[in-house]
Design brief:
The chain is mainly alpha-helical. Helices cover 61% and strands 2% of the residues.
């Protein structure tokens, strides 16, 4: 187990199969052992993506592990191995959003029970999850963007996904993904220009 910025990052162990399913002639379909291996090989991609979209305090390791567990249970839904990364990231995104909703519910409950005013965490703390050490201008500019803007930029720039794959992750159309990416790039450029002035 290793830690980056205080976040646990240890891979989970997926179940192994004793037989490989070769009931299909589709070369893009994998047997259980091969799929488990392919899923494990994308652990760092999941952690990196989750670190960029999750609020401070989220257990990145837990969300990534749950992502692989859900993906394993739903492995029959995977159309082809080429869709594995966008499919995993879509599952991770949904679980992260659920985690964030749960954190907000717990915070509201705590506020009601303790009589304290609700404390809303700032999205400015995202840079602590993105880099170790002093953030540079690009990281500071990225941290100032909204979560949806950061999400689409990270999927494109860091994960190397094109708008069609981003659309799969975000569960939107490819055109909508391309538009979001274009707008997010413009906003990032504007923030970066402010940082560099």
């Amino acid at each position: 187990m290793s830690g980056i910025a205080g976040i646990r990052t240890s891979p989970v162990v997926l179940p192994t199969a004793t037989t490989i399913d070769r009931s299909t002639d589709d070369p893009s379909r994998l047997g259980d052992d091969e799929l488990a291996s392919a899923m494990r090989s994308h652990w760092s991609t999941l952690v990196r993506f989750l670190r960029s979209i999750c609020s401070f305090g989220a257990d990145i390791d837990d969300v990534a592990a749950r992502t692989l567990e859900v993906a394993w249970r739903r492995r029959s839904d995977l159309a082809s191995i080429e869709e594995l990364v966008p499919w995993l990231l879509a599952i991770a995104r949904n679980l992260a959003l659920n985690e964030q909703r749960g954190m907000r519910r717990r915070a509201r409950l705590w506020t009601r029970l303790s009589g304290l005013r609700e404390h809303r965490s700032s999205e400015q703390g995202i840079h602590a999850q993105l880099v170790v050490g002093e953030p540079g201008p690009a990281t500071r500019a990225l941290a100032q963007l909204s979560r949806p803007d950061r999400e689409v930029l990270v999927l494109n720039a860091w994960e190397g996904l094109e708008p069609a794959a981003i659309a799969t992750v975000l569960e939107i159309t490819a055109d909508a993904a391309a538009q979001r990416l274009s707008r997010a790039r413009r906003r990032l450029k504007s923030k970066l220009e402010e940082e560099c002035v």
